[in-house]
Design brief:
Layout (H helix, E strand, L loop, with lengths): L19 H24 L6 H23 L1
Helix pairs in contact: 1-2
Length: about 70
């Protein structure tokens, strides 16, 4: 019986250390990346369409960090 191996998550930068302006820039860049990926996927199927999910979730994480910073003020 083969053992299942999980892929290790890529190390991510600690987003909570970023300022509100930097988070907004990161969100804008991620939204742009998502739009380009979605368009490209519509034209020709991506090899790994789960990348769209990862980008979408990264956007959600960034928005959460931004909201927490704004609420802390």
């Amino acid at each position: 019986m083969a053992a299942t191996t999980k892929k290790a998550k890529a190390p991510s930068q600690d987003k909570s250390a970023l300022g509100a302006g930097e988070l907004r820039k990161e969100i804008a860049a991620a939204l742009d990346k998502r739009a380009k990926m979605k368009f490209a996927h519509g034209v020709t199927p991506m090899k790994n369409p789960l990348e769209l999910r990862h980008v979408r979730r990264e956007i959600a994480r960034l928005k959460t960090h931004l909201r927490m910073k704004e609420a802390a003020k």
